[in-house]
Design the sequence.
């Protein structure tokens, strides 16, 4: 069943909405060809932003069920290690190795999910953190995995920054598509019901564990794939980098900043945070991190629905430019 | 993407080719290694003042653009692109952490530039990425050079046995295989090896076990934050080997005032007590300019980096890469590090600078150089007889 929950829009708004996505997509596709010769710095920076955006959007998928996961770094690291080991030890072609990285992340997410998704709130967060730490310690101890020293990894498209960009853009588009489809299907109601009141959702017939495991698996797949991508683009992984708590925390900060439980919010949050951080770093040589932290604190304190919530509120407050047809029903904002 | 595009507006205008000779440095000014990166930046300042005070290079001013990699590999890769394409640097210098170095090298492989690199001790870099590269000059010793220096020093003391405690990250655990191999080669028996998590407040169980191994020398491979707990808690458990040797990247601030830290030895590329005239001149200029003591070797190493690159450009008579590469390869420089710098082949790399460390011993708050003998400022006290 497909459910339509469009915002109440005037015709110009609808037109802008219809044009907006193709325009953005066109710009994202044209971007590497416009910048590769004149501004490869911006293109390189875009890789970092897109990696961050995939992590943010995929983390949000699980958050929609009300679970705060700190296992995103675990799946990211699993993807990185799986792909690196397959490519270096078994000489598996890199694209296949990357997919295998995502696949193993899914397998582990399902296993971990079945064990832990009955836990809620802080208990679930601690269980996922423990899982990440366990993987980090194992990777650090086992010589086959490169132990604490880490692994040097073969490159993906070594001669082409454009090729590297297009791969991570494709991964991001796939993540956005999944996120968008989830929010326009009956899964949306299941996730929202689980997040709002798990007991009531169960009484209403929602298979809570199944939906949570599915969300966990989807979320893990993209994290694993992105970890694999990271390994083959930056050519070195060690347990401290790829199983770092900073990855899990970064993945949850962007959706909170941009707007939780939406597709556009985590994307917006990731782009604004990473590009903003770089802009601050380039303009304020010392102390930019203080300003960056201050901006984060203001958004969290005064914009509880994130940047997207503010944008939607501003648009709803604006009177329609052209009155078309009957008055639209209320509700649906912010998704 | 629109926000990223905005960055273009914020950026400086494209460099003029006829202007100054431009160096670009990638170092960590923030993050866990920020203190070392800031010391490097000060070393650069001293070198730039000196070079430009003498008329610059090729009759043009020498300009240095420093970028903060934050200790983060993707940031290192991105700022490399900025330096090369936007700032149009002629030569890339700097470098501290191995992971960032690999990310930068991954870019240089695609976009060759002369890389006069100070940091990164992980020898996997030369083995897997820059083997035989004619664009990579490495100033800092590799990890196997460091371990070789450690065991040559231990051997020089006459010690027969050694106990090792190391932090469990890449810094500490990465050299364990080499430690076993070098110990065998130098005829020193390793009676104890154990790991600890950096930042652990109570290390007495580890130190009690190390004490039980009854080795002549105790080596701890740790970060600065673990040094004080190790030396003070060793006293608490009555662990008094003939010599304690620490190898932190930099010693904690205030260590010189720690009574329990007296007579502990350390290995480094350089110490402020180095008696070489160039080193003493460097220290006095540092004190004058920054109103502080230089605390780590990253300052003089960064200074050496800029001065030797500038000298190579002058000798080459052009900033052209091939010519500067040949000139840099012919470097023979004796500066603040106090030893001659030339570039020779390492295990697999083409241009390796320093290949050994020196040993010092803390005496009344000073790092007295004790090994090798030819540059020693004092005799090693051995056995020490650490009290409780």
Sequence:
């Amino acid at each position: 069943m497909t459910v339509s929950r469009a915002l109440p829009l005037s015709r110009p708004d609808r037109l802008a909405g219809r044009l907006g996505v193709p325009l953005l997509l066109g710009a994202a596709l044209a971007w590497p060809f416009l910048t590769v010769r004149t501004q490869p710095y911006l293109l390189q920076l875009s890789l970092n932003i897109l990696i961050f955006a995939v992590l943010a959007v995929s983390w949000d998928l699980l958050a929609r069920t009300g679970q705060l996961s700190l296992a995103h770094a675990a799946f990211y690291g699993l993807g990185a290690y799986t792909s690196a080991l397959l490519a270096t030890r078994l000489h598996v072609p890199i694209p296949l190795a990357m997919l295998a990285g995502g696949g193993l992340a899914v397998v582990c997410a399902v296993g971990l999910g079945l064990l832990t998704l009955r836990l809620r709130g802080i208990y679930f967060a601690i269980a996922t953190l423990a899982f990440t730490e366990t993987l980090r310690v194992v990777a650090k101890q086992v010589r086959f995995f490169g132990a604490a020293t880490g692994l040097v990894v073969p490159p993906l498209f070594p001669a082409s920054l454009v090729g590297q960009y297009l791969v991570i853009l494709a991964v991001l588009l796939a993540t956005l598509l999944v996120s968008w489809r989830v929010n326009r299907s009956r899964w949306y109601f299941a996730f929202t019901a689980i997040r709002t009141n798990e007991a009531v959702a169960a009484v209403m017939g929602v298979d809570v564990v199944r939906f949570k495991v599915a969300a966990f698996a989807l979320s893990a797949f993209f994290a694993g794939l992105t970890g694999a991508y990271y390994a083959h683009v930056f050519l070195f992984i060690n347990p401290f980098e790829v199983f770092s708590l900073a990855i899990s925390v970064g993945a949850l900060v962007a959706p909170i900043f941009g707007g939780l439980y939406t597709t556009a919010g985590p994307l917006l949050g990731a782009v604004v945070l990473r590009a903003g951080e770089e802009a601050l770093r380039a303009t304020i040589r010392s102390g930019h991190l203080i300003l960056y932290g201050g901006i984060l604190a203001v958004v969290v304190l005064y914009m509880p629905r994130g940047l997207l919530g503010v944008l939607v509120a501003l648009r709803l407050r604006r009177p329609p430019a052209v009155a078309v047809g009957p008055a639209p029903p209320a509700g649906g904002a912010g998704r | 993407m629109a926000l990223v595009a905005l960055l273009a507006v914020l950026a400086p205008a494209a460099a003029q080719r006829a202007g100054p000779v431009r160096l670009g440095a990638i170092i960590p000014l923030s993050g866990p290694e920020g203190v070392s990166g800031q010391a490097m930046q000060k070393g650069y300042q001293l070198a730039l003042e000196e070079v430009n005070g003498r008329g610059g290079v090729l009759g043009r001013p020498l300009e240095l653009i420093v970028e903060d990699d934050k200790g983060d590999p993707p940031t290192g890769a991105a700022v490399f692109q900025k330096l090369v394409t936007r700032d149009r640097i002629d030569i890339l210098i700097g470098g501290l952490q191995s992971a960032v170095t690999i990310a930068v090298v991954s870019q240089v492989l695609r976009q060759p530039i002369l890389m006069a690199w100070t940091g990164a001790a992980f020898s996997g870099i030369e083995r897997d990425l820059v083997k035989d590269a004619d664009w990579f000059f490495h100033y800092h010793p590799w990890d196997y050079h460091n371990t070789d220096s450690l065991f040559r020093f231990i051997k020089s003391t006459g010690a027969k046995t050694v106990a090792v405690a190391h932090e469990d990250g890449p810094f500490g655990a990465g050299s364990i295989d080499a430690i076993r191999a070098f110990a065998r080669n130098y005829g020193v028996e390793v009676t104890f090896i154990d790991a600890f998590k950096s930042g652990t407040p109570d290390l007495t169980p580890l130190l009690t076990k190390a004490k039980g191994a009854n080795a002549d020398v105790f080596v701890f491979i740790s970060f600065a934050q673990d040094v004080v707990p190790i030396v003070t808690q060793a006293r608490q458990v009555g662990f008094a080997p003939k010599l304690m040797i620490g190898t932190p990247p930099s010693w904690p601030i205030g260590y010189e005032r720690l009574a329990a830290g007296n007579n502990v030895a350390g290995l480094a590329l350089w110490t402020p007590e180095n008696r070489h005239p160039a080193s003493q001149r460097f220290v006095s200029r540092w004190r004058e300019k920054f109103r502080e003591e230089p605390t780590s070797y990253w300052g003089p190493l960064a200074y050496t980096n800029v001065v030797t690159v500038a000298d190579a450009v002058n000798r080459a008579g052009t900033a052209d890469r091939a010519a500067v590469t040949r000139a840099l390869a012919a470097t023979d420089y004796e500066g603040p590090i106090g030893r001659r710098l030339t570039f020779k082949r390492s295990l697999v790399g083409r241009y390796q600078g320093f290949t050994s460390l020196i040993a010092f011993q803390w005496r009344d708050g000073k790092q007295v150089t004790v090994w090798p003998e030819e540059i020693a400022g004092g005799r090693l006290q051995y056995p020490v007889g650490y009290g409780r």
